[in-house]
Structures are given as C-alpha cells and as structure tokens.
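User: Assemble these into one structure.

Assistant: Restating your components, then the assembled model:
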Amino acid sequence: MSQIAATLDEAIEVIADGCMLVVPREVSGVPMDATRALIRRGIRRLHLVALPTSSLQADLLIGAGCVATLETSAVSLGEYGPAPRFTAAILSGSIKMKDATCPALHAALQASEKGVPFMPLRGLIGSDVLKYRDDWKVIDSPFGDNDPIVLLPAIKPDVALFHAAMADVHGNVWLGRQRELATMAHAAVKTIVTVDRIHPGNLLDNPTFAAGTLPGFYVDRIALTERGAWPLPLPDYYAADAAHLAEYAKMAATEEGFAEYLDKYVYEKQAA
Amino acid sequence: MSQIAATLDEAIEVIADGCMLVVPREVSGVPMDATRALIRRGIRRLHLVALPTSSLQADLLIGAGCVATLETSAVSLGEYGPAPRFTAAILSGSIKMKDATCPALHAALQASEKGVPFMPLRGLIGSDVLKYRDDWKVIDSPFGDNDPIVLLPAIKPDVALFHAAMADVHGNVWLGRQRELATMAHAAVKTIVTVDRIHPGNLLDNPTFAAGTLPGFYVDRIALTERGAWPLPLPDYYAADAAHLAEYAKMAATEEGFAEYLDKYVYEKQAA
Amino acid sequence: MTFRPEELLADQIAQLIGDVRHVAVGNASPIPATAALLARERGRGRPYVSLLGSPKNTFWTDGARELFDCAGQGRIDVFFLSGGQIDGHGNINLVEIGDHAHPKVRFPGSFGSAYLYYVVPKVILFRTEHSRRTLVPQVDYVSAPGASEPNVFRTGGPVALITNRCLFSFAGGRFTLQSVHPGHTVEEVIEHTGFDFDRPANVPETPPPSAETLKLMRETVAPQLAELYPQFAAQVFGVAVPSS
Amino acid sequence: MTFRPEELLADQIAQLIGDVRHVAVGNASPIPATAALLARERGRGRPYVSLLGSPKNTFWTDGARELFDCAGQGRIDVFFLSGGQIDGHGNINLVEIGDHAHPKVRFPGSFGSAYLYYVVPKVILFRTEHSRRTLVPQVDYVSAPGASEPNVFRTGGPVALITNRCLFSFAGGRFTLQSVHPGHTVEEVIEHTGFDFDRPANVPETPPPSAETLKLMRETVAPQLAELYPQFAAQVFGVAVPSS
C-alpha cells in the first residue's frame, strides 16, 4: 500500500485537534502548504514543537488560533523582524509558552528516538530557561562528585510534519543533510511528509541516495505539494520569497492586517 | 594543510601504546591494512572498543598481543566459527574483557558526541552484563515512580580508526549509511581514516554526496590503502574474501598456526 | 508430501510471528529468515522483514544503531535470539560457561540481547541443538533474563522456544511444551531437557507444513533467501549457488 | 585612511578571536561574520569558520544538532551572542522584559544560548546599541548566566562585550572597559551603561584598523560575505548586489 495520498487534505487527516505536532526550523523543509491546509481546516489546540526554532509557520498557526502550547527556542522572522503574531500571543497570554534552548529540543527528540525516558544536557543550570521548566529535572551526576546536570524528559510527538524535495513510491523520503528530520520521524508516532516531486525508482536501491534517505518504514502519509515550502526556502532547491516575507511582516504587524493576509494567501488558495 | 598522509605508517603514528582505540563492526569498514600495520609496528596495551562487535580485526590484534582491554558486545568469525585468539585470550585471562551489549556501546559513544557524561539505556537490569560492569550505574528515573534505569558513562576514545570507500583532498570522507562512523569520529579525540581512493573535487559541494559525508573538520589523518578492508568486505564496494577467512579460521585455531598466519599475511606484507 | 526439518521449523516460526508490522532477524539465522520471508509472502508484503546483513532486506540508513533505536521506539515486533545455554526461566547465556573469573568455555558475547530481549514484544528463542548441554536448569551467565521484576521497564521478552525436537511456549516465567515434532516423543524431550517445563496431558504432534506452504517456501521464499544464505538455500531448497 | 564603524568592530573582533581552530557565527550577525572571515584570511585558512545559514561556509552534515554536538565536544572555540538585555554580571536576556507572568516585551527566545554560553570557551558578546535600555544592572530574564557556581560544569563563557561605543573585557564576573572607539568618550560610555564596570586610570582609544586590514576586508572578505549578507556587503563594502 502506497503512502502517497490523493490529496494534501487526506495526508494531513491524522493531525488531530489537540495533538503534539513537531515541525522543523526554517531551513530544514517547512511544510507551508500543509500549514495553510491545517489552518483552512480550522485545526485547534495544537501543542506545537518547533525543532528547534520557527519563523513564519509558527507565527501563522498562532495568529490563526491553532496553537494552545508552543515549545521551542525562538520564533522570529529573522531579517524581516520579530514574529508579530507570536509576540502578540505571548503578551496577551493566549498561548502557553514552553521556552527551551535548541540542543534541549534536539536531545529530547533523540530520547524518544532511542526509547529512553530522558536525556542529559550540559548548560542550563542557573538560567531562567531551566527555572520555568518544572518538567526538567536536575540530578547530581552519579559519575561526578557534586556535579549537577539537567535531565530532559523525552518528547514523543503524535505527528512529525515536514517538507522534503522528493519521495519515491515506496514512501522513502530524501532528507539530504537535514538529519534532524530523521530523528523527528523516529521520535514521532506518525510522520507526514509533503514533497515537491516523486522520484522514479527506489531511493534505497542507490547507496549514494540511501545515505540521505528516510526509509518509508517510518512514513505514514506523503502528499505532493510542488514548492510546498513557499514562501520559505528549501535549501539546495529554492530560496525564500523575500518580497512575500516582507509583505507578511508588514501585514501581520496588526491583527487586521493578519486577517487580510489569511484571506488573501491561506483561505483564497483553497479556491484556486 | 591536507590530512592525506604520505604513508600508512605516518597516518597511524598517533595511535600510541595504551591508547583507547575505537573500531567499527565487520560490515561498516574495518581498516585491515592499518590493523596489519599496527601489528607490524608492535603496538601494545590497546584499550580496544569495537562498535559494537568485531571479527577478524579484534582476533588478530588480540592474537598478536596488542590488546590489554577489550570492550565490545561480541567477537566471532561469523560463519567461519568462533574467534580463536579472542577465545583463547579470555580463557587464559590474558586480556581484560569488558562485555557490553550493542546499544550500550552506541549510546556511550553518542554521549561523547553530545558532550554529556552519560546516557541512559533501557534493558540490562537483571543481566550479568550489568552485574560485571561496575562502571555502569543504576538510578531511579526522576521521571518515573520506582523506575530503575541504567546510566552508561561516555566513551571518549583517543582515536577512531576506520576504512571508507573514498575521501577528498579536503579530508571529507564518504561514509554512506554507516553513520555510526560519524559518531565515532565526533566522539573520539582524533580520527584516522584509510580509504580505497581519493575522490576528485569536494564531497561537500554536492548536496547528494554531502548527506553521506563526514566533514574533514573531524578527520586528522587519511591514508590511501586500496582494498584496505581486505579480507573483510566493504559493503556496496566489495565482498569478503571467503577463502581467506576460512584459511584464517583454520590457521588461527592453534597458536602456532596463528604465528604462521602473521608471518605470511602480516609481516611478509611489509616486504612486498 | 515430504518435507525437511528446516521447513517444519520455518513454518512453525512463521505462525509464531503472527500478524505484526515488523520482524527483524539477526545474523546467521537462516531458518528464522526463511520464516520471516514466508510470513511476508503470506501477508503480501506485511510484515516488513529486516534481515541483518542483507542490503536488499534492510532499510536502515542511520547506521548500526538504527536496529536498536527502532526496537526502543517499539517498532520491532518480533526478533530471534539463541543461547549457548537457555534455562527454564527463559534466561539466555551468550557469554561463558563456568566461573566468571575462570570460564571454561567462552562464547562470542551478548550482542544486543541484553537490550532487545526487554523491548521486542515477541522474542522467539531458537536453538536447534536440543540437549541437556544447551537447555539447562540455570544458565552460568545471564546475558538477558527471561523475566524481570514488575518495576523494571519491559515491553518485550520470550514467547516461545523452538528446537530440533519440539516447540515450547513461554509465559509466567515458565516453558510449556506445545508440540513435539514428527519423529520425536515427549519422553525424548524430557530426557534431553535440563529444565522443568509444563505440558498438557496430551501433547500434540507439530503439524507438518501444508503443500501450499511448502510450495511458497520452495518456489518464492528460497530464491530470496539465496542472496543472504546461498549455502543454506542450496542445501535445503536446492537453489543453485551462483558462481561469483 | 578612513574606515566605517563596522570595519573597526570587525577588526577588533578578529583580534579577540585570536589563534583558535574553529569560530562559529550565528544567524543575522554580519559584523562577527566579517571578523571571522578576516581572521581566516589572516590565518591562511585557520580557523575553520562556520557561518550559520551559509551552505558555502558550514560543513555540517548531521543536521541541525551538529552545531551543538560540536560545541559539546569542545570543537567550537569562539561563538557570538547578543541580548535584548545584557547586565553587568554577563547575564544575557533573549526572552522578555517585565514580569514573567505578564511580560511587557517579548524577544524571539533564547536560541542555543542557554547551552553554548557554557561550553564555548570564548563567547564574544556583541550589541551595537549601547544604551541603558540594553546594558542594564540586572536582566529581567536570564537566558544564560555570565558566570556559574564552581561545581557547575562550565568550559566556556563571555570574554568580551563590544558595542558601538567601546570594548569591554569580562573576567571574574565583571566587565572592564578596555578601549573606547574613536569619536566616543569614557564619560559617554558611563552615561549610557546601566551597569558598573571597572576601568583603568587611562582608557585607551580603540586602535583603527590598519590599511592592510582594511584592504583585506574590502577586497577579500567582502566578496565572500556577500553570499550570506548581500545587503550588508553592499552597504558597508560596496559589493555589487547580484541580480537574481
């Protein structure tokens, strides 16, 4: 049975209200078409984990009221300035924020990848990042002598969702160097991938391709969404749409402008 | 400065008597030419870590008297039977054996890769593998309720040594799917690689190759040793030399036969 | 229809595998590999079968650790283990016989057993040599225990032990004789087993593989098997060994 | 020879980098990136320079975690951090201003600072806006502390803070004014700094970049910089922005 879904909406069916959804950073393949489809579907109460940071994707989902809890290390539009809907939501208290630090999120996903309940991490002690995370624990390392170290509980997302350049009909997905996407898929219960194109043949048959491939074994659904990361980049394939991102930053600065943006670029797209 | 050494002996200079040396399993690229060169050089008192098992390589090094401590999950010649010099050394007590289990070695190397003093691992509790490892600790997981879990101290080898199909002049090494070799290199203080050939150009310039490449940043020395894994296989490139392995198993069954083997296949090779 | 002992064992193991998503088979295990491929043929592609050492039948791209990570994720449903010794508590010994300080016999080592035995839901023990030497009251070294204290995290463990003489199931810390293979007897099993086990009043004979199963094994499974186990495929199924 | 303030800062930072193996520069940091590339030119290839976001100037092949793993291995010698607030103890705040339950201002977040600040031997703090708004007595939120208790594992931390007005060094939990940039005064620095700091009786002026350094930056570094920072390279160094 092929994982390739007939439609994007069918592929993302499994992403339910209230689920824990893990998504990648801006340069690792952000599934923007899928994000817009989730907003159109009116998804609610997401526990969004952005590994380890986010930009437009988190801002859009937050602005559209899809997010209950956000767990990440930073949200920003980078050179286009702060992420306005994220900032507004934090200041109004409309989302629960679990501030982290990048390597903590990587380690917590690797814990689920390895089937262990926690991972240790250096740093953090004495920071307010740790102070406000009562789910993180400090122990005295049994290998040291008065050596406190932080333990991070495993993050086991219900769904991992990302965009990649290509997949084959066996469900194998080309990741290239973005190996944290493999960790996301290993850690999550289910994995949904959108891709720009379907690769003929089997990516695992060629040892060169295989090295950068996530086996279809870990992939539940795939949807074909050409340039599905737009307006974000897909490194090695296409650049960000700078003009669009600047337009977003401007429109999303106000609630009204953001509503207009949604009408123009998210809801309208459905009709197109 | 290029990492490519003029000779194999020069590349392995850094592997000193008494050092902790990590080497890969039979199908991940075993540096057999380098192993023979170490034996010819008369290396002594190695703390050999085989990730996570070994075959001919450990048996040869042990038989030649190069190993003080062996840390691995199994040594066997596979279809050619038990590893005779390993077995004899254990029964005579001439090496110190630190029996492990495969995922424990992977995790302990990943601990060094991540700069943490330990990694947790499920399993092990109630086994004699754990009982005889007083360097492993059991704690009550702070995320559970009466939930004992094993913590493994990080393994930080002095040197990682392996064989790969190719490297480029920038020191980048093609690993393909053998990603534990990257972990070995990340974990070790120094990394020495032998390769079958030098790849023209820069492996990191091509995103497809880059996905399966260890960056030269982690590589200290490279030696060109064509078919350097012989008589072991280099998967995707060449198969094991079955006749030779059968001959080894037969000769190494006795100490005399093993000495003959060394004369014929290790010491003689120098003259050739 | 006549059949070879290996075919009987593979058929039995395929049934033990049941309807699962993923079966992994370790190195040097041609009969379990036959069974896994047979199960895949019957399930028309399900379960996924990972045969360690076979590039065609493994999907791993994350290095040697992926098998163990995959098991830790709960994504390996069936695995096979053996032992230099296996005891009546389901403990297996892959390390040594004798006193730990001065062993008399040394085996290769525990491999991944001290982990996989705990986290793979169905571990099928497989040991063709059924004798008091291999099936002992108490192993000299516990590579991995058959059962654990209730507070020890354990999602897996042994479900069965198959030998050249019979099939045992394992539950509640004990083996139960399920069936005796054609040509063997309960008395013979008792005589050659070093541990106590339960048994029903009437122990059935292990049913022979059906004609359909034999056809599937010989015509469809055997050629696939030959990639990894050419000698075994030639010897048991008469698959021509390719000259290389 | 005239120079731009960015050139002065980059030259100073390049000297702070010193003779090391590996400098990593985070996103949106054109001046530190200029300094790192300048140091690499001077060292004829040493240090390795990793510019996050630049495929040409990063060697990572193990995903987004490799930067942090690499730092954890002790393989990153110099990194750069900034802060919405930086205080006199070297604490940095990348999260919020005001009460944690009801912040008045929200910044993007701590990124990797709560880790990298502890494990990179030389962290150079960089904040062009030198004001009592940014340089405060005590940060409202500690993304990462400037110093740690003696028993806390820490192989790294801040060594300097460079602003548009001056250069501070950091040691023993305090900043010391090292030099004031041309056109600025000690009094002005005191007026605009919210925290106490030490200073010598005579504070030198930050030396201007040499003609040789300026040539290297403008002719050799600037074109390399343009890949990642085309606007900056155009504005500061007049590198033509490629039409795309």
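The first strand of chain C starts at residue 22 and ends at 25.
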